[in-house]
Design a protein that fits this description.
Elements: H1 4-17, H2 22-33, E1 37-40, H3 45-56, E2 63-66, H4 73-86, E3 91-93, H5 99-106, H6 110-113, H7 115-131, E4 136-138, E5 155-161, E6 166-171, H8 179-188
Parallel strand pairs: 1-2, 1-4, 2-3, 4-6
Antiparallel strand pairs: 5-6
The structure holds iron/sulfur cluster.
The site of iron/sulfur cluster (SF4) has 13 residues, from α7.
């Protein structure tokens, strides 16, 4: 259970950072937590901007990604490109079971029958394990991405493990950024992008659950088509942000 001090600190920092430049928010995380703060990325534009800004200023946060075993080859190629560009190794978090083991136990193509269970096994549980080893999780969440992200605060206290009653500081330094601002930054700094963006993909996750979007659709409309689902669960599994 976090102390009142933690809650007050988080609320006051969230308010303070509402108008702060990205660099200043990341500087606070680096100076306060050092390598106990880590960037989690799925290589979407905002995450790339956060990583590039951090490393450009010498804030060498560890970086991790969740490799479900179902990522596009283009995403894995981008991971390698970013590692070379930043001069770092990005840790891949893996599910406990291979796809074959999961299919043997729960049936083939679980994403078609039970996508929430599939996301829990292949994304949420590996992430929970990682979060229990650090103090701050830095994300690329933006309020503009879809309705469920509109209330994202720049600093939050996140109850990421109910069973063990574990909390973490979740830092969303890109929360106020628009898609256009992200695109401008990427252009100005010549950052590599997922090759699939040229084919109309915007939010890019696992192959079976991602499609290109058309003009006018929300950025995350291409995820889990046919299901009443817009989040994999890693940002919503407890719904008790403070
Ligand atoms: S996004 Fe689809 S394939 Fe990936 S873990 Fe979730 S349900 Fe499974």
């Amino acid at each position: 259970m976090p102390s009142l001090h933690d809650r007050d600190m988080v609320r006051s920092k969230a308010e303070e950072f509402e108008t702060s430049p990205l660099r200043d928010i990341l500087a606070w995380a680096w100076e306060t937590f050092g390598e106990r703060a880590a960037i989690g990325t799925s290589f979407q534009g905002a995450g790339l901007v956060a990583m590039h800004t951090a490393y450009s200023h010498g804030f060498r946060f560890p970086v991790f990604t969740i490799d479900t075993g179902l990522l596009f080859p283009e995403t894995l190629a981008l991971k390698q490109q970013i590692e070379t560009q930043l001069g770092t190794t990005i840790e891949s978090l893996h599910p406990d079971q291979t796809l074959a083991e999961q299919a043997a136990e729960l049936g083939p193509e679980l994403w078609k029958s039970k996508p929430d269970l599939c996301c829990s096994l292949r994304k949420v549980i590996p992430l929970q394990k990682k979060l229990s080893t650090i103090d701050v999780w830095i994300t690329g969440l933006r309020r503009q991405q879809n309705q469920s992200r509109e209330c994202t605060q720049i600093v939050e206290l996140y109850h990421f493990d109910v069973l063990r009653d574990l909390y973490i500081i979740k830092l969303n330094p890109m929360a106020t950024w628009t898609r256009e601002q992200v695109q401008d930054y990427i252009k100005v700094h010549d950052l590599p992008l997922n090759a699939l963006t040229a084919q109309g993909y915007r939010s890019i996750g696992c192959q079976p659950c991602t499609r290109p979007v058309t003009e006018g659709e929300s950025e995350r409309a291409g995820r889990w088509t046919g299901f009443d689902k817009s989040e994999c669960g890693i940002h919503t599994f407890l719904g008790s942000n403070i």
